[in-house]
């Protein structure tokens, strides 16, 4: 059985989420691969060592290039701040190694394009961490759409809103910098755009309106110094999908009451389905002829769920979605299919977000192919 | 006390709804007016007589012009098919009589403009039946917005969807004709636009996308003959409000699972509120600092509710909203305020819908003032 | 067509609700009766006259016996405080006139029994105002149960809770006196018991636990004087139905968050249905084989709804339920069926409540037939 | 740092859940213990080896007694069928080793009593897997109750219903045998009773009604042979808590529409809170003076949640609750507190369930101390 040594860069929340996901995927799923946690990198050597030890990695590096070069490492997982995705992924691809990069792919469309071209040239498996798509109930939604159970799809209405910047005294952070892929559209909206594409396919044209509501924020918590903010606090857009469906997307990080409101309603000629990430184990569905929506609760009839529990209602959480993402990645590395967002698809998401930005700035419809 | 003789034209569902509303308003509220049900008109003389008798009207007419000319009639209520609103309202205004006309004001923007000018010239009270606005809990929402409880309003996301045309074999009806103010935008969307204006005021510019999904329908139920359909089945739009808020509106009569889904979420810097006409006695509200939405159930703290019940949770229905609309109309006739949609405001709603149509047709942002 | 003169006693909220219901029933339904609002009685002659005028009654009485004796009056509607139900209804029955009495039937089981015997002896139509049962969606639930759509019924879990006494400084009122049918069980729970019987039939035995949480309350708002309270603030009970179903009922007027939470879940071998009076136009239903509950929203497929609106989602409110109750009463008076709670059935409800009281006091199972 | 070698018996779904929980607890939390996965036992030696390898255990045993005797093993985790809990736990206690046993503690009250006495005599840490209690939002509920935020608690209304036996052709299984702790009360209800005790403390007396609805079931799927069933399909009970609160509990495995409906409403003089395991990241709360319930979504303000995610709305699932249970167990083993259900408390749960059985059989109130 082929050896697969995981090399993980980054030891924050997302680093640990990756570490757990690799371990749990190994315990839960069967792969024709001998998975090992080969190496962990963090700029702080002590933290690298400590986390390696407690998460079960064999070696620790303080230089990420060394991790990439480590011959025991066959897959590079990147969980560092957004602006580091580009150099790390490019280096990994240059070394001919598969890459699993957290979202967003990059902090500019130019970088994203280079990355997807480099991935294509390297011919290796790539994945970007849009893990919400790996929810088994989202997989069910997608299957239903593709099997035609909702008929011809005519509308997608999506929203991803949270409230974490709603307080105007919430301080500036890197999320407020366009150069770090900040702003509500890049930070939240990209998840929604990725989901829309995942479910309905290509978008042809967009029109949009975006707004910076709070033009300045404290430089840090309680700091009287204010920093100017130019990234968007909210965006609304119209979408025309290639399949003929039309839709709206909205994203805001100022919306009181929402914590993780990645939601959508998809209307087809034979039914409507609705989802909200705040209740990620549920789908609401109304088929033609039914009097109203019914609630579907994730259960073991969904393969991704059955892997974790034999009983409906036990509920999956965020970490299981990550484990399922890793499972698909590993299947791809084993040459056995494996769905997920590769660099080419992640670049499409970036391109769509960029078109929305142009449409908002120029107040006109923009074709994605422009 | 001044006599006020009601003259009602039309004996359909809406005619009866008006008749009940006038009676119930008299029983429930105090007015400085001596309200009488003076005359009822229907083209069918027998039906006119029968309904007059069972609804309590003093006289019956088969010619609506006679009703308008009847000296005992001081207010003309119009509940006939849409294309008759114009001639009847114009005749009533020519006679110098106040008019209470069902929505939509007219079947074309030109008619609507003439009607609002005639109303202005006549100097009489006019009202158009956008009765959803008279829901006490909507009044509460509006008061909260106007008192600044939600802070600066930044977003309005509205939808009015139903499923009554979702079946492609649902036959053609007058609602499928533009010349009768048909189509999802005119039939449903206008309620939503009226609500958006009621709550947030003027809209400055719109961009939109609309679609006819089913291009033909049976001429009548089960009829093999098909009629071509050109009115919109669904519309999505972006709105820019004069107060700076941005938003989306969607309307569809093809959306499985919804019966009366006139809904909105309004996001402000100090809170979010949400409403759905399918649960018309409820408002969901999250104020800054609160962990999540709380449900408000209409109760006697709301004056319009207290008029009907001393206890929360008893619930108002459609007919009470109509009674409340009539109450406001009667207050206006008594010269004591009285909110509601007059012809000038109803024309603004029509103008906004017309701008959305232009924006959809020409695929560009349209200023309302164009 | 036979004349039917309505004589109404009481001019409070419930008196007006009756007045509106009689008027609206006449306008909305066809009856083989010539309904007139014949007389209104209130101890205060001026109020009697005023209300008669504004509600459309032909005469006013300040002595209720005179109203009963009035030859123009053929039906006695009683909306006075609970302790007056007995003398008024007995006088009406003595005069051989049909009676429509607000709930509860009486303030003691002994009175209730006398009333039902007098009704039986008089052989006239009687009705008690358990109007929640006349909700068309409750009628649907009952029909489904009776047609066997839920299979064999195995469980009823019901609750009627509100919060109007939850504040311990809410003052004493007549509702705190057992002699006026006060306490959570009599005031709220009786609605729930009536509903349970309406849907599932006879109860055979009960066991119960009740509690007075706040043993004293201010004599009036803000009054430092305290009155001792002995009626129950909450009650929980087990029920064994004659049809073999088992269940629980709970009632409290101390439960924060609820305004009119008359709710139940009925479980059968073929399905589960759930209802909450706070959303009175909805039923939640899960049939065998379905993955979860679906929501049914009242619409014109339900006859009682269709009478008021041709479109689903318009929603009925409290007043329509009252109108529907009156319609059934009028059908009964016309000798054409007419469902509803008569004095015999209302006595059964009282008997069931009394058994619950005994069971709670003696801490044992009590057979209703004891 | 002290070594702690985990010995796990059983390789089913629950065995794997334990294996993952130990690993993830080690990665997520800091303990003053050096945790190792020392040994795994399964009667099938090949399966034992395979699972040990893929879950990361150092050794595999096919004889559970050998695992208990293994000197590298310092904690015995038992995830075998219910009837094996007793011999395994007794052997572990005899060896003086701490025990972590899945629920139920035993298949008879007598066994449970012996086990809790043996645990007391051994003086070691014991835990039983009532992992729903380790939900951070349940911890919040408990803290709120204990801090008095809901005032004096007056009512607990709980239910644990599922639908997995609702189909009468669902075959017999060990869950249908009393000797394996089968029946709705033992299988589901015990979780609810444990939760009620966790939140409100001791119960003093119960009255109950239980029922076997389907008296026979196929011996296996599709098998024409029927087996007689005597365990309960549903149970309803009244509870009197020592703290004065009263309540109801219901449990059914025949209730269509529910998958994991472990739910409760707790009413206090200062507020009401409600929970449903089918939405395990949510609590609904209404405090005195608030107009209605508000939804709390688990977030990083709850320590148990913060361990897994820095952002609200990410959601925990079943496996995180298990990890949190293990974390508390490990804290207890480290002598640093550590909440959870020990054998003494689990015996109290069994004793309460047994009292409910007696109350149902004898149709009378039963004191727990009887």
UniProtKB/TrEMBL annotation, chains A, B, C, D:
Query: Which segments of the protein form a coiled coil according to its record?
Result: none
UniProt keyword annotation of Oxidoreductase present = yes
Q: Which Pfam families match?
A: GFO_IDH_MocA (PF01408), GFO_IDH_MocA_C3 (PF22725)
Q: Which GO molecular function annotations are given, in alphabetical order?
A: nucleotide binding; oxidoreductase activity
Where in this chain does the record put each Gfo/Idh/MocA-like oxidoreductase N-terminal domain?
Answer: 5-130
Isomerase recorded as keyword:
no
Q: Which UniProt keywords apply?
A: Oxidoreductase
Residue ranges of domain GFO/IDH/MocA-like oxidoreductase in the record: 139-273
This protein is called what?
Gfo/Idh/MocA family oxidoreductase
